[in-house]
Structure formats: C-alpha cells, structure tokens
C-alpha cells in the first residue's frame, strides 16, 4: 500500500527481530505508529458472540520475526531473496511443477519499488474443513448427526506501516471464519430456514442439535425470515472483528505492527462470498462483462460515516480536529470570512462564516490517493492499526477505522460459466494503474492464447496483470508501455476461474 | 401516509380550531404525539449557516386552523367538501379552464379511505424568482451587478400524525430554498468554479460581490474543486434543515402537529434536482426506460444508521430499547438461549446468547410497511415530528429521524427529450400498490392516446395513475381490476414533462 499511511516510525520486522534502519519514505512525514499504550477508546460493540464461539482459534501464535512470503510460493532461500529484491522486482508465482492451487487458481505478486523494505502484501489460499461444534464433553458427534462442511478460501492482505498485521491475518483469518461456521454446520445443510433461536442445554452452550432447535413455526407470527446466506455473511463479518480483536490482544508480544486491508473470498455451498475491508478490489469478468464485487473504503467513500462519528463523539477529535470538511485548510487570517464546507449530513457544499474552531485540521481532507483521516491514513477499513496515532499526539486513529467488511454474494449456480470467466482479486498496486476494462482486455488476450483446459492459463493471466501494472524500468522509474508510471507499490493478484477445470473439485 | 405512524392522540386541525372527535384508526394504538415539552435532545449539527442567511423567511406564519388543499386546485367551498369526502374519493386536479401549472405539469390527488379525517398530503408548484442578496443598507444591487435567477419548483408532502407539518412545508420550504440560493445568484451564473472563500466586509456579512471573491487560484494548490451543482445541492439540504428548525420553533404557537415526508424537485439552470426525505418516490420514464430518481428512507433502509446512533448514544434509548436487531421479540423465558441478531455494523445475521438487556424492545423492528423505529414510526427522514414520543414514555423519537434529503441530479441538457418523457412524483399511496413498470405502462398508454402537443395529457396521466392506485369500491373495499386491494391512503401525483410543450418556458 503506497502513499496510504503516513508514518515515520512504522517498525519493520527485521530478520534479527530488532527494528532495522529503514529508508524513510518522503511521503510519510506526519504521523507515528506509537509504542503500545492504553488501548484507544474505540466505540466497539459489546461482544455479542455465539455462546461457545468465543474461544479464539490458534492461540499459540508464535512470534514471526522473519520476513515471509505465502507458503504456496514454495520459495527456496534464494527465491526468497529474489522476491525481496526491489531493483529487479521479479514476478513471483507458484511453481508450475508443484501442487496446483485449488480450482487451478492463478497467483502472481511483485515487491514494491523501494517504499518499504519488504513486500507488505500477503496472500493465502486454502481448502478449509469445518467440523460441527463438539459437545461439551469433547466427544465427536455421531456420524449420522451431519457431516462437516468444506469451504474454499482466498485472501489478499495489503499491509501498511509494517508487515505484521498482514502476515498475521494471512495465517489466521480463515481459522476465525472456520470457528464462526462451526455452529452453523448443521443449519446450513438443512433445507429448512435457520432456526431463530437455539435452545442451550445448561453446561453445553452452543449445542445446536436439531432436536433442540426452536423452529420458526413455534415462534411469533411476526418475525423475519433469515436466509442461510445471511448466516454465512454474519459469520464472515464476526470473524473479521475477532481477528481484529486478536491483533489488539497480541500486539505487544508478537509485533503485530501496522495494519492491513483484507480482501477475502469464501466459496461455500454453491455461493461465492467476497468480503472486503480496505482498498483492494475484486471484479468478475464473465463473457467479457465486468461485475464489480467490492467497493473501496477510503476517507472519501466513508466521509459521512467518519464525520458523523466525530460529530457524535467530539472527544475522539481531541480538540485538534474539526468534523467539518473544507475544500482546503482554513487559515487564521480568514476568521470571519465565509468558506465552503460540508457537514456529515451533506453531500453538497455551502458557505459558512469561519469561526475559531474551524481552524482545527479537518478530520477528513484531501482527494483521491491523497485523501486522509486525521492527516494520517488513507484507508478506513481493515485489520490492526491499534497503535496508530496522530503525529506529535497521543490521539488514537483506530476509533475511526472499521474492521467490518462489506460482503457481496455471487451465486455460482445461477449462471453456466465457461473457462474464460474469472474472479480477479488485486491489491491497490494493481488497480491504481489498471482500469476494470484493461483487466477485462488482458483476461481476453491471455486466456485466448491458451487451450481452455490448460490449467496454467490462470497463472499466466495473473502474471500478465502484475507485469502490466509494474511496467519495465525505464527513464528513472518503472514505466508502462504508454510511458506513464507503473505502480511502485506491492502488487498481488489472484485469478479464480469460475468455470474452469477443477472448479468444482 | 397509511400505517406508518402509530399515534393514538395525533391531533387534527379541526375547522373550529378545537381537537375534533375522530375515528381512531385500529392500526395506530401504540404511541402518542405528546403535548409540547422540552425539545428532544437531538444530536444536531451546530448551526453553520451563511453569514447573513440565518433569517428565516416568512416569519409571519399565521395559524392555519382550517383544512386546506393546494391553492392551484382552485377549489370552491363545495369542491373542498367533495375533496374531503372519504366515501366518494373523487380525484382532484387543477381545472382545465384555469391557468396551467408550469411546464403543463399534470397533478392529481385523492383523499384516503378514512384513516384520517382530512387528506394529509399536500402539494406545491411554483416558479420562484431569486434576487441576489441585498447589501446591508437594504438598497438593491445595481442592475449591472448580475440578474436574479428563476427556479421551477414542485413539492409533495405526505403528512403523518396530523396535517400541520405537511401544510407548513408546502407553504414555506421553497422560500427556504430561495433564501439559501440568494447568496449564490452571482456565483451560479459565473462560468468560473465557485470561490472557496468569500471576503466579508465588516457590517455586511454575506456580501458576495465579485470583487470580494477569493478565487481558487489565490489559495493553496491542494484544494478540492467544488462544482456549481454541489452548491445547489448544499442549498437544498440546508433549506430542509432550516425548515425543520422553523417547525421546531413554531410548533407551540401554530399547531405544527405531526411530521411529513418531503419530495421536492428544483429545476435550475438546466438541471433537475430531486430531493427526497421519506418514503415518497420519483422516477423518470424516458423512452420507456425507468430511471429511479430517489430512494426511500425507512427503518429497513436506514437500519444501520439508526443502530449506530443508538449504540454511540445509548442515552437516546432510555433503557427501554436495545440497538441490536432480532428477528422477533425476545421473550424472558429465552434468557441464556441463543438467538439470531444483527449489530449496527453487520448485514448478515449471527447467533448470540440472550442476556438481560436483550429483552428490551429493539430500536428497529418489523418488515416492509410494518417496519418501525421505537415501535412507532415507519419513516426515518422528513420534517417535523418534534413532539413525537414513544407510547407511555417521554422518550423522544426525533433524534433518530433525519431532516436531510438525498438529492439526485438529472441534467436535462444531456438528452433530447420527447413529449412522452416524464418525471413522475408520487406519495407512498401510489407506490404501495403500483410498480415502476406499471407506471411506465400507464405513461405509454395514456400519453399515446393524446396528441403530443395537447397540454392536458399530463393531467390525464396523473389522474390515471391516481385512479389506478385507488381502484373502485367493491367487495367492502377499494379494489383494483385484479381484485387486489387498492390504496386506502392519501394519493398524490405530479407528472412533469421533460420535453413537452412549455417545458423551457
């Protein structure tokens, strides 16, 4: 993530475990990722968890002091060094000789052009088995009581102010999702609508035996019908929150420095769930048509949410910021003059007389890639950032960030897909310099050069997308064929075939 | 507005000024529009007005104790009685012999089937001249200093819990818009981008002489460009807020009882601005294609905003409500069991263990037309409702309601319109029983039966839409041709031709 977090003291995980000297990025002068202090007073919901789902998975998180790349890349020590080389910026993909990723998924990545020591993107691709929740005695259910569930999982994590959060999320987020789904194994496989209420046997919280379900028919007549799909969405949403809470708990011991955007795909029971928190993006290219599967969460797209929070909780602004937006910084000499402004409930602009408190820095300022919350961070959703503070201040920024994703659902069974229909996930390194239409054109160009049943075509496509966004070194920079600057950011891309070979394996 | 406000004591303005006996609607048993008390502690933005724009227009609001219909209907006393007859439900339109509405706009309305004594919808259609703000001496500007502006204006106001708010809004909202635009007269006619900052001469706040404008070029390089269009949007947004504040101030003296949805169209300098706060709706039918020009604001569409407010400001819930949503009311015997819930940041559902505070009534409950905030009101944006309280409680509901509209802009110059292209505005009485496609079909059927240059065709269309939603009395009710129930609500419809005769007069 280039340019999206101003942080002069963002610690990097060095190979020796001590903060290394690192090149300071000239565009990161203004803020500090402060040492652990009192947790920020984020207005968080009271924990409202499933009775027995509260246990965090994988409590035995080992400190990962060394730089790492996704295990499916199967990098040798030499390969790891090559992947870490800012000068060469070699594109990395899983080896053609090894075990393929599920669904013949294509993947490619490249390190940034020098903005951070290591590649702060991380990725994960897994097939995850979900066993139904065991009873309190620990004995497994009888086999007849229902089988477990499998889901396919892809995740891209774009770190900022350090690689720790992205690395941790890439190892653990799918386990949190699995944990949330455990209670739903039977319910999701039952064609009946989900029960609104589950009876809990004393001492066996979370038991969801069918015999203990209170079906909708036994409840009031006035009740909402809740779909299976919305249970999966809720499970993913809560998994994001639990992942974020785990980062908050473990940040001291395990160097969970910085934060990360998270873009995650779950395929379960015929449906694709795309969950996004941050500014990575996903699109489906289907028969040449583009279907957006996410939207970005930035200070611009979430301006009204941020301003409302600042207005309702002015203590979060610490007397340093104003929740009003101005088209530029107000200057002291302009007191009493009238300037354009926007309040939290406005989409248009109007003039207001400048008063003393309007001289504070606006909570939201800037445009496009330069838009910032509290002059510091350019994404408004994601995981981590628990230590992020405003420069020269102890004011925490985390209360304004949301760890909740937007989840979009795509029903794979509603359309007969051909091998050229793909879901493309990319970090902002891809999208900053590549339009949806350019991606669709590359999909068409690359896939048509391969046989439909050649499983390597999706890797070739991912590589072409990464190369097209990186460009080649020329004229003191990485340049695209049109001579515009390529992306100097970390770039990571998944290409998931929706109807290709192995799709439904 | 049928079924959208539960209020047993909603005062009606009687012809004699005293509360009349009225039929109590069986679906309004639960809440009370309390007598004026301390104003609710709504979290409102601090007034951030244009320096000289604070004076409310039309301070001389006379108490309107008698039932009224839009003046453009030109109703005689006998006509007024006929319009007020629940049994006949005669459709009302402006007389064919009188002066036509601007743009040959069509209008039709019908009273409800008995749910309230009078028709609580109101309408307004005006051509409004905006003179530039005068200097502090009160002397008009020199003519050379720029001419005034004209805007065309249409408004539908759907009242609830009494007709006062709708009546007041229909008389005054366009004046508030005019007042907000006064400062912008010169700026909107200047092809240059709006100045970000206006110099104020001491003693002449609000002066916007061109000579005193600080153009963008003299400001920092990092600044947002603000469009003329967004200034008009901001003016309309602030006009809604000022209208709402005026209702709050004058509710004691002038019987501004109840509240109203407001759907307003402003045509200014080639663009159509559609501002909506409530559950009325507007669509454009252009060459048979349907273009939605508004969305509805209800407890369902605004669930997350409402829940977030309840979560951040729990004092607004008064210990009586929970901000969590449940698919049905939780029962005391279910304590400790696990029930589906949604928090403010979730779109999916999950199970949680029921705790004591979950037994409170949910802030948002119900579905569709039965969805309610605090078990009381079914719309979440609009004007008025300053006295609305939860039944058997002093808890104010107004803090959860927003007076801000969503404004959509349609550029009339971007498309060559034919006489059959129309903008249709309707209160929920129309849309509850009529789909967008049915409206489009009626547009096609009725307009094709008239000559393109026959100005009465739009009135005929408005009447057909109202009749189609009302139905005919049959089988103990008002029935549509398909034998479904027609709307028993007040129904009001504007049909605005986008390219018809007189459109640009």
From TrEMBL, chains A, B:
<protein>
    <submittedName>
        <fullName>Protein phosphatase 1J isoform X1</fullName>
    </submittedName>
</protein>
<feature type="compositionally biased region" description="Pro residues">
    <location>
        <begin position="36"/>
        <end position="46"/>
    </location>
</feature>
<dbReference type="InterPro" id="IPR015655">
    <property type="entry name" value="PP2C"/>
</dbReference>
<dbReference type="InterPro" id="IPR036457">
    <property type="entry name" value="PPM-type-like_dom_sf"/>
</dbReference>
<feature type="region of interest" description="Disordered">
    <location>
        <begin position="1"/>
        <end position="103"/>
    </location>
</feature>
<feature type="compositionally biased region" description="Low complexity">
    <location>
        <begin position="47"/>
        <end position="59"/>
    </location>
</feature>
<feature type="domain" description="PPM-type phosphatase">
    <location>
        <begin position="104"/>
        <end position="498"/>
    </location>
</feature>
<dbReference type="InterPro" id="IPR001932">
    <property type="entry name" value="PPM-type_phosphatase-like_dom"/>
</dbReference>
<dbReference type="Pfam" id="PF00481">
    <property type="entry name" value="PP2C"/>
</dbReference>
């Amino acid at each position: 993530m280039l340019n999206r977090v101003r942080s002069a003291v963002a610690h990097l995980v060095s190979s020796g475990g001590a903060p290394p000297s690192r090149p300071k990025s000239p565009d990161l002068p203004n803020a500090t990722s402060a040492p652990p202090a009192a947790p920020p007073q984020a207005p968080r919901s009271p924990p409202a968890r499933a009775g027995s789902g509260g246990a965090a998975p994988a409590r035995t998180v080992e400190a990962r002091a060394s730089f790492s790349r996704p295990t499916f890349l199967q990098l040798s020590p030499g390969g790891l060094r090559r992947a870490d080389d800012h000068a060469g910026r070699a594109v990395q993909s899983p080896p053609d000789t090894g075990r393929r990723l599920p669904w013949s998924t294509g993947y490619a990545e490249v390190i940034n052009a020098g903005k951070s020591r290591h590649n702060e993107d991380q990725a994960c691709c897994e097939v995850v088995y979900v066993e139904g929740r065991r009873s309190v005695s620990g004995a497994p259910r009888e086999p007849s009581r229902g089988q477990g569930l499998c889901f396919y999982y892809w995740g891209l994590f774009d770190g900022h102010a350090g690689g720790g959060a992205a690395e941790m999320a890439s190892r653990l987020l799918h386990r949190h999702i699995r944990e949330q789904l455990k209670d739903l194994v039977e319910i999701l496989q039952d064609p009946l609508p989900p029960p609104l209420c589950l009876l809990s046997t004393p001492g066996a919280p979370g038991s969801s035996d069918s015999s203990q379900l209170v079906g909708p028919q036994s409840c009031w007549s006035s009740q909402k019908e809740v779909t299976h799909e919305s249970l999966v969405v809720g499970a993913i949403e809560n998994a994001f929150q639990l992942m974020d809470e785990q980062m908050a708990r473990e940040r001291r011991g395990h160097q969970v420095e910085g934060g990360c955007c998270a873009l995650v795909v779950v395929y379960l029971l015929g449906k694709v769930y795309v969950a996004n928190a941050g500014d990575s993006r996903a699109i489906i290219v289907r028969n040449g048509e583009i279907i957006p599967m996410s939207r970005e969460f930035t200070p611009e797209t979430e301006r009204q949410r941020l301003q409302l929070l600042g207005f309702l909780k002015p203590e979060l602004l610490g007397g340093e910021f104003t929740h009003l937006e101005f088209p530029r910084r107000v200057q002291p000499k302009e007191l009493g003059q009238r300037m354009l402004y926007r309040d939290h409930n406005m989409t248009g602009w109007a003039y207001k007389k400048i008063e003393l408190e309007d001289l504070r820095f606006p909570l939201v300022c800037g445009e496009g890639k330069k838009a910032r919350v509290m002059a510091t961070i350019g994404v408004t959703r994601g995981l981590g950032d628990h230590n992020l503070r405003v420069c020269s201040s102890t004011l925490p920024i985390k209360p304004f960030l949301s760890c909740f994703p937007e989840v979009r659902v795509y029903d794979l069974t509603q359309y007969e897909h051909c091998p050229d229909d793909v879901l493309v996930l990319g970090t902002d390194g891809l999208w900053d310099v590549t339009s949806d239409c350019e991606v669709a054109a590359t999909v068409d160009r690359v896939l048509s050069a391969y046989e439909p049943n050649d499983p390597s075509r999706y890797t070739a496509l991912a590589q072409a997308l990464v190369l097209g966004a990186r460009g080649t070194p020329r004229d003191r920079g990485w340049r695209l064929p049109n001579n515009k600057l390529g992306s100097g950011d970390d770039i990571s891309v998944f290409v998931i075939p929706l109807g290709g070979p192995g799709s439904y394996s």
